[in-house]
């Protein structure tokens, strides 16, 4: 996997220039306030560098899925507010993505100023990769920086359009993400252990195939494990199952390097006061569903992680948001925190879990992009990275 991307230092002199900064501001909100500001805070080093160069910044990003229409429950106002708090200065919010008001606000920026455009996905052209939207965005600025690793697996207008029009570069966060994953996949120290969970095995088959060439062991948890258990001929009760992928799972199990649960936590309903049982993975009764790996499995997984030189974790081991089904994910998180090897959390729910358990500062890297991390592992590149690599040279 070649990094080979233009860096911030490759941009032309930015003094008194305006820079379009595409960030991944898709953060969780509650009551109109940002609940987890990781994706905002990680942009600060790039903003600081641009400030030092004398640039003004027109930041942009998306929030939720407003489906190409203005829907104010997905307004970027809370993001602008939190970004301003982190920067210690006002971040004005444009009332639109493109148009005369946004353009006038951008034109009035002084060196060091930061403004934020309204939600990119209020424009249908964003997800449709509209060349016109890309042009309109670029008309407001002089250069472009992609700091949205978590959205760079999408061929959207603000991701792949500007590099063909403007001098462009990857930001500090984007480079860190790509460097970490590249190092992990290029001749990694062994044993390299991957821990994969989540709901659907169909979402992870390509990643498992790619990791088999790199990993000594792949540990499987979460609801996706039950399709693997079915591939062993086990009855999985009412657990989530993708029957059409059983044959593929059987082939992966035959490698001897894909390990699945030996016991599971089961319940008849997903609730905090559910009646739970721990049973062998081959003995899930009808009417019951597996909702977490069991304690024996968690111990085996923790022991495997403890001896690893490299660990990549993507996907929880169970429904960790609900306490009766959180222990498997907690045990894996603690094992990563205690591991002396190089540990990487591949974004998404795993990142949420490691932060919930207060362990994020004890792993080496927490990715801001779950889907992007997985696609980079599986495909070796992302549309946003290819656009930068092939874009207009400074």
- Low-confidence sequence ranges: none
CATH topology of the largest domain: Rossmann fold
Net shape? elongated
Helical segment tally?
A: 16
List the helices and strands and how they pair.
Blueprint: E1 18-23, E2 29-30, E3 33-34, H1 38-41, H2 44-52, E4 56-60, H3 77-87, E5 92-93, H4 100-107, E6 114-116, H5 124-127, H6 131-138, E7 143-147, H7 157-160, E8 168-170, H8 172-185, E9 192-196, H9 205-212, E10 217-220, H10 225-231, H11 246-253, E11 258-259, E12 263-267, E13 276-280, E14 289-293, H12 295-306, E15 310-314, H13 327-338, E16 342-345, H14 348-356, E17 365-366, H15 370-379, H16 383-389
Parallel strand pairs: 1-4, 1-7, 4-6, 5-6, 7-8, 9-10, 9-15, 10-11, 15-16, 16-17
Antiparallel strand pairs: 2-3, 12-13, 12-14
Helix pairs in contact: 9-15, 10-11, 12-13
3D architecture notes:
- Strand 15, helix 13 and strand 16 form a beta-alpha-beta unit.
- The chain is 34% helix and 16% strand.
- The chain is built from 16 helices and 17 strands.
- A 6-stranded parallel sheet has the order 5-6-4-1-7-8, with helices on both faces.
- Helix 9 crosses helix 15, helix 10 packs across helix 11 and helix 12 runs parallel beside helix 13.
- The chain has 394 residues and is an alpha/beta fold.
Short description:
34% of the residues lie in helices and 16% in strands.
Key features of this structure:
394 residues, Rossmann fold, 16 helices, six-stranded parallel sheet, 34% helix
């Amino acid at each position: 996997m070649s990094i080979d991307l233009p860096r911030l230092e490759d941009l032309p002199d930015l003094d008194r220039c305006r820079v379009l900064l595409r960030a991944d501001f898709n953060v969780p909100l509650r009551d109109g306030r940002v609940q987890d500001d990781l994706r905002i805070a990680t942009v600060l080093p790039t903003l600081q560098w641009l400030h030092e160069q004398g640039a003004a910044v027109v930041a942009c990003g998306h929030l939720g899925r407003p489906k190409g229409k203005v829907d104010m429950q997905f307004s970027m106002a809370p993001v602008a507010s939190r970004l301003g708090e982190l920067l210690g200065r006002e971040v004005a919010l444009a009332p639109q993505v493109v148009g005369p008001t946004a353009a006038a606000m951008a034109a009035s920026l002084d060196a060091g100023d930061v403004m934020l455009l309204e939600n990119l996905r209020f424009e249908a052209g964003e997800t449709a990769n509209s060349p016109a939207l890309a042009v309109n965005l670029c008309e407001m600025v002089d250069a472009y920086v992609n700091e949205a690793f978590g959205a760079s697996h999408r061929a959207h207008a603000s991701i792949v359009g500007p590099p063909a029009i403007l001098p462009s570069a990857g930001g500090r966060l984007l480079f860190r993400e790509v460097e970490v994953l590249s190092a992990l996949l290029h001749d990694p120290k062994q044993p390299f252990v991957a821990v994969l969970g989540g709901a659907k095995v169909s979402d992870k088959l390509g990643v498992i195939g790619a990791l088999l060439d790199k990993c000594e062991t792949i540990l499987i948890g979460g609801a996706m494990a039950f399709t693997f258990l079915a591939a062993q001929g086990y009855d999985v009760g009412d657990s989530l199952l993708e029957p059409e992928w059983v044959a593929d799972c059987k082939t992966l199990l035959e490698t001897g390097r894909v390990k699945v649960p030996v016991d599971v936590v089961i319940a008849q309903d997903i609730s905090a006061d559910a009646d739970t049982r721990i049973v062998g993975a081959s003995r899930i009764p009808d009417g019951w569903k597996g909702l977490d790996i069991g304690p024996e499995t968690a111990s085996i997984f923790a022991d495997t992680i403890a001896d690893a030189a490299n660990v990549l974790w993507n996907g929880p081991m169970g429904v960790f948001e609900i306490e009766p089904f959180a222990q498997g994910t907690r045990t894996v998180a603690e094992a990563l925190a205690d591991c002396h090897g190089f540990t990487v959390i591949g974004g998404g729910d795993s990142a949420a879990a490691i932060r919930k358990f207060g362990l994020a500062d004890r792993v080496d890297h927490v990715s801001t992009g779950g889907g992007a991390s997985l696609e980079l592992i599986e495909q070796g590149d992302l549309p946003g990275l290819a656009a930068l690599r092939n874009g207009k040279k400074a």
